[in-house]
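Predict structure. Chain length: 247.
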Amino acid sequence: MEQKVKVLIADPCAGYRRLVAWQINHAPDLELVGDTDNGHEALRIVREAMPNVVVSDIQLACLDGIGMIRQLREQQVEAVSILVSSFRTDNISEETAALGVYAVLLKPFNTETLMEVIRSVKGQVENPSHCTPGLECAITEMLYKTGMPPHMKGHRYLREAIVQAVGDKTICRALTKLCYPMLARKFNTTPSRVERAMRHAIEVSWEGGNRDVLQDVFVAKPGKTPTNSEWIATLANRVNKQIEDSD
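Prediction complete.
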């Protein structure tokens, strides 16, 4: 039987929680383990129900969403965090990236988008990367800064490829023979679909992402879209340097 992704919803709006709960309860691959408008209550539900994914608004009663996620990290809870908010600031972006938040979604958005982001976590839930928290946070922050949409399949494939490339630089020279087949097995797809999804995600990010960040990261390619291997190798090198500088 296929493993369901267990989800907790923490949001101040009861109507919104009911809408998301309805969609999750009618999804064969998802399971709702609880919903609340209270950050302390969310922590209790996490301890008892052990969800795979916590979807939280920043504004919660008693303990806000960022504070709740911070406590989850301090308690080394492995649940993937998705933060939703009606506003975004540089401070929030930096803090959520440092906490390893998987995605930040700005309200209003279609609930189908939220379902896509939750489902994009599925491969990570079923086959965790076992990367260190520091590495996970650094990769999350780097992909976030490039402006790559987290619900895209290519995002999760690139994320996993960067994890591999940080530990083994030769992986970028063997994408076709090693990396694509490895990711295809992990996510139950084909190597060609992995390659195409990566390509599409990079093109979307290159066209619509943060131009200043992209130009800074890919200084040698100011006008040309990087290849899959160039993107993975460059971000892996940046992540390695970021971790080394923080030690």
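Summary: The beta strands are 5-10, 30-36, 53-57, 80-85, 103-106.
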